[in-house]
Records
---
Amino acid sequence: MINYDYPLNERVRTLLRLEDLFAKAEFFASQAETLDHHAALLSLFEILEVSCRADLKSDLLQELERQKHVLEALRHNPAISQEALDSFLSDISQTAAKLHELSGKLGQHIRDNEWLMSIKQRTTIPGGVCEFDLPSYHFWLSQDAETRRIDLHEWLAPLLPVYRGLQLVLNLLRDSGKTTHQVAQQGAFQQMLAGRVAQLIRITLSRDIPCFPEISANKYAINIRFTTLGGIQKPRACDLSVEFDLTLCNF
């Protein structure tokens, strides 16, 4: 199955972008090749740009605290595993505590590193980090893989509480929705929201279906048009009846 998440507000859009960038940064940093570590550093620079919102940390803390109160109310619910609930509440508390420990602007340790910022500045130029442009960066990339991994972890580690916080928030959001099975006749689907509020739309469909959803939505309606890749041609509308699962997520 393939999941497609579509945010309906700017806050969720920012969290989804950061989730994607952190996953890439961690993956590439764990590899051994020079190009992998270059990709990890590029992802780190993008995280720096996206996380510059001053209220990101407070937004995460506020949402975690709100969800903690919601979950605490389930403590005596016989349908809920108390062991799993305690574990999740502990995870929320530990993540919130680590977020509280972050001081100053997110990523300030990177902004204060003149060498890293000189590399970041050159990455905006196509081919701008060639060895003749940045011999010091070429030298760093020529170090052994473990040395580079240690450096990448040092630069990434102060931001990881944000990653864990947004993972918890997004997982709670994704689990909050009710899933319905739908069919897009000739690749088109529309549903009126009729007063329902959603922060995230999740569409799930089989990998065997040769198309993908293009989504537009507002507070009144959801419009989905399934599209297929046309080889060297531009994507074209899919005229099949497509079965998919639709989840409207909202805290």
---
Amino acid sequence: MIRAVVFTALAPIIWSTGGLAFRIADADPWTMLFWRSAINTIVLFAGSAVIMGSRFRSGFRVAVVRGIPVSVFLALALILYVLSISNTTIADSLTVQAAGPLFIVVLGWIVLKERFRWITGAALLAVAVGVALILIPSIEQGGFNGNILGLLKALSFASAAIAIRRRRSVDMLPAVVVAAAIATVVSAIMAPTLRVPTRSFIALAYLGVFQTGIGYLLFAHFSGRIPSSLSGLLVLLESVLGPVWVWIFLNEVPRVLTIVGAAIILSALVTHTLLYPGRERKPEVPIE
């Protein structure tokens, strides 16, 4: 149990370094997305094959045939993540993206007719206040578009989670491999150039191999061995630590209202996770 908790927590800690690595890469967003996605596709394909063993071939076939809606939503989440952090501060982007798990509950109520509980309504109201504190100042101070893209990223991931609930034969690991491949193709078309300086390539290789590749495989392999409420709390480490790295190393200081909004949003998510009276189930894996 302790080992599973440690490795599950390690995943969002690794994810939290993504913003710092993207800032270091300092290239066109589509170019950065191409290299990260291309490398990520290779790493996830190999890692999924090892983890799933004999199940990988059939799982991959199902993901391609029946899981395309899942992979399309996940690919959109991958794309929007990069576009968001490229157009606003890391603190703003990661904070609004943290609302993803709550969106899953809301979409589950709308699409799957799951019961909507008062604790979810209260959490939604708190999150709306927190997001407003981040969005309103960004209209004049910059970053508004990036914040909206961050919210759309959270909604895209939530849509993928709902789609995979409706297609229970679809395994998340092969679906993410297909999603990374889709993001690679789209970014190759959109990128003005695929050439990057050596320093940028090293940062993007780190993103593809470790931040999304190893980080995702760790979470997918170990999170199912601990209670979903605990893994849901551990995921929030990304939103907490991500702004800290760019603050320490790049002096990207979040606005006061962003800190207040983040505190409200994260408090609402923690409270909702602890009090939501749903059945324990394997948690949906965030996609960055």
---
Amino acid sequence: MRRAAAFVALALGALIAGTARAGGTECWVDNGVVVVPAALGDIAGDFILDLSAPQSQLHFDVAGSNGITQPSDDAPLQLAGERIPPLSFAVAHLDARGWGFPTNIAGVIGADALAGYVVELQLAPCRLTLWRGAAPKLVAPQTLSIQMVAGAPAVSATVSDGRTAKHGLFALDTGSAGVRIADSEAALSRLPKGLDPTLRTNPPARIAGLELGGELIPNAPASLQADTPPGLIGSLGNTVWSRYAWIRVDLRADTLELGPRQSPPPSPRPSR
């Protein structure tokens, strides 16, 4: 009888551990962009976390300094205490994405690396948690459906300039500060000479309103997005996600959970 009781206790303990396994790490927000410590194989450094990126990328300079001459590097990824099986990081010039950061950016971690996880992100203070099994339940005032478009998770939203409204799918963008709108859908008025209208870290414009899940965010920072994949109107950056205590992205169940609204949203803690 004692042996049976011990077997049941052991089995239940294993089941609980399997449904609640998670890894976590502190992150930080620079220029409105989420940055996390990670290691791709032997390459350790600071990576931009960008859920709107369908494929993860390794900076061309970092690849060269580590003897990588191929167009991609396949290696396991250490992130938030989790060892993610080998995946392909495309070698790319990322100077534009890393400009103005106090730390060197080694690469971009995209949706492909996180496909097997529930991703929980809070921005102030910044913390990333990855749940490999079923994540513990939290009270989520809003749960929205996710659709995958060109490899990126997206949700329905509406943007307005005060006269015209556009409704459609926007990618979840943790690698940009503001709302980005396809340059085929919008244009900036009175753009100062020499200013880049596609800036991710310092959006040069404002939109009158953004509606997400029935809630209105007025006067949101915005920029244009070139080469927007078909099916998307743009992407929603951290000016949106900072208004919630936390967000949870389940790329297996195709759901986005939004934590309680914070008004006014806290200022994200800057770099280390």
---
Amino acid sequence: MRYSIAEIAAAIGAEAVGDVTLTVTGAAEPAAAGPDELALAMTPAYGAALREGRALAAVVWPGADWRDLGLRGAILVPRGRLAMARLSAYLDVGQVWPAGVHASAVVDPSVRLGGGVSVGPCAVIGAQAEIGEGVRIAEHVSVAAGAVIGAGVTLLAGVRIGRRVRIGAGTLVHPNAVIGADGFSFVTERPSHVETARRELGEGIVPEAGTDATWHRIHSLGSVVIGENVEIGALTAIDAGTIRPTVVGQGTKIDNLVHIGHNCVIGKDCLIAGQSGIAGSVRIGDRTVLGGKAGVGDNLTIGADAVIGGACNIMANVPAGRVMMAMPAMPIGQQVESYKALRRLPRIIRDITAGDKAVSKRTTSD
């Protein structure tokens, strides 16, 4: 399929200049782009690479001298990454979803299927589940009893949806994510060492040998509620709540390999990057961002619009709007000062050593 520069510009809400009748088959990086491809050079940093390629048209920054860059046409975008989001959505033809239920799928007779649903090979849908209009369920997906899947939801290969989970319209769940497994919650007959350690700051008495250390499971009765237009990455796990549901607010985007513990409440439009781990009963405000490998201790609150840097370990509540980085996490200003002090340490040590030598020489000469 070919797209004209004018068509692409209209689709992404940008200005087209030059020969807008030029057509392309897709997009490419500037240096690798051929005559039939649209080069993506959204900032001046890509100018040199654009000259290396053979593209006749490109997406460029405002004010770019596109003719001097060897182009016959261009699309001007003031915000490159936003343009990338719109362009990639426009060019992505997506997966073909056959209508209806595949012959190998197992769908309980009590399931309510909306119109235009696609259910792939070897999928399983349990009793009393509700599947909204236009839902797309890929191969080997399982939807447990009583789950409610909103209109336009896409569940990709191998996704597991637990019992009574509710997923809002337009949500996308990537392969092998698990939503609604039991939370990690256990208790012993008598208070264990780990139970008393926090309260006593590690000074608790270790139970005597022979004390019953059996862990008794606290079952999860609360399930999970996912808002509309959420994205959940591959191999991510969101545990069911103990009594009330674990909640993920609308518009939140969750990367691959993220774990969200039982009873958590995640706000709207949050970003949670890969390998982040959020312990049980955490509350995270709207629009908060967690960098990759961020960790959040249990029963903590992170306010709205907070930014948690990659690999941060959050061990105390974080106020709204606070930017945290380092490990252990601390306010960004404090962390920068600490980092500067760390960088100055070698010089300080040299100065102290030189001063000691000078004192030593004076003492010897005296």
